[in-house]
Design a protein that fits this description.
Layout (H helix, E strand, L loop, with lengths): L12 E2 L4 H10 L2 H6 L14 H14 L8 H4 L2 H7 L7 H8 L4 H17 L1 E2 L3 E7 L2 E2 L8 E2 L9 E3 L2 E5 L4 E6 L11 H11 L5 E6 L6 H9 L4 E4 L4 H8 L5 E4 L2 E8 L8 E9 L9 E2 L15 E8 L5 H9 L3 H11 L11 H26 L7 H9 L3 E6 L2 E6 L3 H16 L4 E2 L4
Helix pairs in contact: 7-13
Length: 442
């Protein structure tokens, strides 16, 4: 290693010069104007930060890698980034917490219904697939709504159990409700579905997919009454297990994978419904998804119960059974969205004691995710599904400082010669970017 000394310079340099691309996209979307029209809670003090600064600061912090409220100071202490945003000073992390405490259930419903409705009205897509899922967010403190419930990774720990709606076609999130940890997957689902559809009121639903947590007669009846196509994974009970293990008309799709169908009517249902049944031989497909029905669990005279893993789906589609099965398998991508929200956007780490403050912050993080997804669609437009961590490494982490030539501000970026062209290509695309945006272009 060379022998060297250190010196300091007075030039204000930011390590996140690439954030200028995302800020320019928000400007082209007129995000601040629409945010101001959503009747956000206002600060009571003249010294309070404007709501738009709080929201943009949260976006910038999450995109730059902040994992909790305390990490949002990364924006406050970055003088060059504050200048780029036009702020005299950045907000302390406690200012974010105080501001989100102003949100209530009614404010959340009003603000985010308007904000999400505007966002999706500016995207051109139709006949879309809507996936519903829930997840568990473990809590360490005594936050409101954090109670013991279903928690597979840390049983007995308090948690929240949010509900999410995903638009599979554009890999975006249409709705997010925070719920106490002791709620089941289908709790308040019908209200959540109505709220989600109202945000996408000018678009047609092509298909709704749900896991077994939403398997109930009320859910299916509502979807059928509103003429909504659906595929829902079945929750296994003894009658469904009997149908699976005593089915004889299996059709082999590939080695070790068989499919069949039947009709099933629960005691609480008013009519029978179509069931698609799938079994996969464990020896030939050791990584197969599904549930194994153990030998002797139902009937002692059967010997092959343990050879297969079974899956079962109820649907109102009239498509061939294989098409229904293949179509449902695409729902697994929603699990990737949840992982990205947790690991890259730290959705489960931004938590306040106030329940509605936590939900409000979570909704803004979901909106930051949607804008990042829009950025990937419109400006990166790569065949690779790049996660935020990759984008942060390749684009955001660009040392830069803000200068001025005559009356024009210039952002000087430190990029290697090999990567400058890709950066400039995105900058040039931004000049032509506008809303509404046709997602079919990407």
């Amino acid at each position: 290693m060379r022998n060297y000394d250190i010196k300091f310079v007075n030039q204000e340099i930011t390590p996140f010069g690439g954030l200028s691309l995302f800020l320019k996209m928000l400007e082209k979307c007129h995000f601040d104007e629409h945010l101001a029209s959503c009747s956000l809670p206002q600060q009571g003090s003249n010294r309070g930060y404007k709501p738009i600064q709080i929201i943009l600061g949260l976006f910038a912090g999450v995109w730059c890698g902040a994992n909790c409220f305390g990490h949002l100071d990364v924006v406050r202490y970055d003088a060059a980034l504050c200048k780029l945003l036009g702020w005299e000073r950045g907000a302390d992390h406690r200012a974010y917490q105080r501001y989100f405490n102003k949100f209530s259930q009614a404010i959340n419903q009003r603000v985010f219904s308007e904000l999400f409705e505007w966002f999706f009205s500016e995207l051109i897509f139709d006949n879309y697939t809507l996936d519903f899922d829930s997840t568990v967010m473990v809590r360490e403190g005594r936050q409101e709504g954090a109670v013991k419930g279903y928690n597979p990774k840390r049983p007995g720990r308090p948690s929240h159990h949010p509900l999410l709606a995903f638009i599979s076609d554009v890999r975006m999130i249409a709705n997010y409700w925070l719920r106490p940890g002791n709620t089941s997957a289908s709790t308040n689902y019908l209200s959540f579905l109505e709220d989600t559809l109202s945000r996408l009121h000018n678009k047609k639903v092509g298909l709704i997919r749900m896991d077994s947590g939403f398997f109930s007669g009320d859910t299916m009846k509502y979807l059928e009454d509103n003429r909504l196509p659906y595929i829902i994974a079945c929750r296994f009970n003894n009658r469904i297990k009997y149908s699976l293990t005593h089915e004889t008309a299996w059709v082999e799709l590939t080695d070790g994978l068989d499919i069949s169908e039947t009709t099933y009517q629960s005691d609480s249902w008013e009519k029978p419904r179509r069931i698609i049944m799938v079994r996969q031989e464990i020896e030939k497909r050791p990584k197969a998804a599904g549930k194994q029905i153990r030998q002797l669990e139902l009937f002692e005279d059967e010997e092959d119960f343990g050879k297969y893993r079974y899956s079962c789906y109820v649907t109102n589609l009239t498509l061939p059974a294989k098409v229904v099965y293949d179509t449902y398998r695409g729902r697994a991508d929603s699990e990737n969205r949840i992982k990205e929200l947790k690991y890259d956007f730290s959705l489960d780490d931004f938590v306040s004691h106030n329940f509605w403050a936590t939900e409000a912050c979570g909704n803004f993080i979901v909106m930051a995710y949607n804008f990042m997804s829009l950025f990937r669609h419109a400006l990166i437009n790569s065949g690779k599904r790049q996660f935020l961590k990759t984008i942060r490494y390749e684009l955001l982490s660009t040392p830069a400082y803000l200068g001025k030539i005559k009356d024009k501000h210039i952002l000087y970026l430190a990029r290697s010669l090999k990567t400058r062209k890709a950066f400039l290509n995105i900058w040039e695309k931004l000049k032509d970017f506008s809303m509404p945006y046709n997602t079919e272009k990407s």
